[in-house]
């Protein structure tokens, strides 16, 4: 079983302001804001970012305000700021946001991209699954929020590293999904030894297509043919 990637110890105290801003923008966990405050009490620019961030929990904003000696905003003011930010985000086109997000992520170091991969939302994961560093892609697969449709896209991709395909194959929960299984087995980049372990679970129509698929390994096609012959003989 693959060892989990251990990059959670990246210190908020030395993380760049841009990396912290990205984490605040993408997280829905109050704990993230609390951890950043605890680690960055000596960084005025981070405290101000917490104080001004629309999704920072009220208690963390209050702590930041006290540290900065700024007025504590009322619950009504905080809610108004949050609603304005939600409205502003709704007006931003998805394409423009994706491009902007990609540019921001590209400016981060590998360790910061890995931390973001482990905690980021779907848009962040979509960008990071195309990252040139395989450790970043493997970290996305450890994100607890990753969906089956995203895993299926990884299983189908010819651009992800082989280790990512092996990680998908080792996850029993994911491999219960027939669409993920089929995507993995029919992906020419999946090692034949990995695909062989799942070929017997394919439906007859998919075995027939696999037998004719010249993009996959010859051994895989031969195994599909053998299974089809066995099914016909067993009728």
How do the helices and strands line up, and which of them pair or pack?
Layout: H1 17-26, H2 30-39, H3 44-52, H4 58-68, H5 75-91, H6 94-106, H7 110-119, H8 122-128, H9 134-141, H10 148-156, H11 162-170, H12 178-185, H13 192-196, H14 204-212, H15 218-233
Tell me what the structure shows.
By secondary structure, the chain is mainly alpha-helical. The chain has a domain at 147-235. Helix content is 64%, strand content 0%. The protein is elongated. The two termini are 39 Å apart. Residues 5-9 have low confidence and may be disordered.
The parts where pLDDT drops under 50 for at least 5 residues are 5-9
Mean pLDDT: 89
Please tell me what the overall shape is: elongated
- State the helix count: 15
How far is it from the N-terminal to the C-terminal residue, by CA?
39 Å
Quick one: biggest sheet?
none
Relevant terms:
235 residues; mainly alpha; 15 helices; single chain; elongated
In short:
With 235 residues, the chain is mostly helical.
